């Protein structure tokens, strides 16, 4: 999809060069080769491919060619509790901004509506700064949502009623899945913040060429926001690690309980088995075999060897009740 976003009007689907004359912002969503070629013909600029915007080297994400800035970053997206990153690229010249994306981010629609409601022209740099502000606001919202989820998960781990039986396995499995989802979101958010920070620093270092001086204050504020959000994301990563360790600790406890049960069963079962084996030997000179109470004696002895270990395990608390 190839859209042009003129100030004071709705976005226009671009199929020819004449349809984008008044728009400072051109938006490519999952562009075809024909749409990339059309954007290049309209702007006279090279349009990066998806492989270009997916490069991870810093020198490949922010650079300048012939007074034109080429910027790219991964951006976090969350759909139905599934978090992932998708690359977004920008081509910024003094009169045009071309955005290249492969996922439908809501921020683009928000900025487009803002531009449609204002008749005053928005330059290419103004549009880029509005998009950057929207990205950072969206990441902040995702981190706040994740923080609430982590609080609920923490209460579930430490303050919920103790489950029993098969509920324990299901609860621990759900905890691990939820902790993993939050870890994915926070990791993706940190990658996005790092990429946006690179873009803002690069633009700030080239303010005279990239954007008007009046936008420098907004860029500095965005840099501060990224710093605070990065610190917040680090704090949340630590909490995720703590919850993960706690969940794994509960799993170890459950495994230990299982081993305790096996230990009790084996120890309780060995003495009576030994007694039964002794009196089952085929030796003639076993006094108890000729005793009239020998059978009852053996049963009582076997019962005692079962009960006494159980009492000992009970006093140790291994049986789970006192």
TrEMBL record:
Keywords: Cell inner membrane, Cell membrane, Ion transport, Magnesium, Membrane, Transmembrane, Transmembrane helix, Transport. It catalyses: Mg(2+)(in) = Mg(2+)(out). Pfam families: CorA. InterPro entries: CorA_cytoplasmic_dom, CorA_MIT, CorA_TM1_TM2, MgTranspt_CorA/ZnTranspt_ZntB. It is a multi-pass membrane protein. It comes from the Bacteria. One of its GO terms (molecular function) is magnesium ion transmembrane transporter activity. The chain crosses the membrane at residues 261-281, 293-314. GO terms for cellular component: plasma membrane. Belongs to the CorA metal ion transporter (MIT) (TC 1.A.35) family. This is Magnesium transport protein CorA.
